[in-house]
Amino acid sequence: MIELYFVRHGQTEWNQIRKLQGIQDSPLTAEGIDQANTLRDSFTISFDRVISSPLGRATQTARILAKSVPISTDPLLAEMGFGSAEGLEKEVFKELYPEPFFNLWHHADQYDPAAFGGETFESVERRAQNFLESLKSIPAGSKILIVSHGMILKIIFGLIWNHGLTQFWNDQVPLNTSITKVVLTKGIFAITDFSNVDHLENTEVISYV
Known about the structure:
By secondary structure, the protein is of the alpha/beta class. It is built from seven helices and six strands. It has a single domain, classed as Rossmann fold (3-Layer(aba) Sandwich). A hairpin with a 2-residue loop joins β5 (179-185) and β6. The longest helix is centred in the middle third of the chain and has 15 residues, at 121-135.
């Protein structure tokens, strides 16, 4: 059995002001840094390895959490790309691209980001599936910490739950610095704890990634 601990990065400046980040970046806020420090201090296990998205907000979180554990990055864990819509505030995105905006948050199976050169859900699903397959080569008994982003993590968990795109919004976006435990046994993934934020006193659901 392999134990996998998936963490969404801490709160960022763009999370706070509801700007769409995608593969662009903004640094952690003071609260985001505190969230990561609090999560690190709550750990009661020792990790063998840390894998992070290469984007700055994820690696910043990973460095706080890792202590002295080696960190590697994997581009498969990068956030879903939103093309020229990245950096737009939520209401501006909605005004410029009303149909893609609505489908992004309500009908993932109908989402078409061609107007702004974004990444499709199908493309992100392929990345997520490839990442999950790569984990199967990790030695049994390992405990791995994985730091990534809201949408790509949501897609990874949807694949594990076998939720198709028509069910995509049945599940919430993992919260900032939430930890989701997944066990991998004989090639089968199972989520045993989802979006746990017991380490935080106050949490805000931020549905803009």
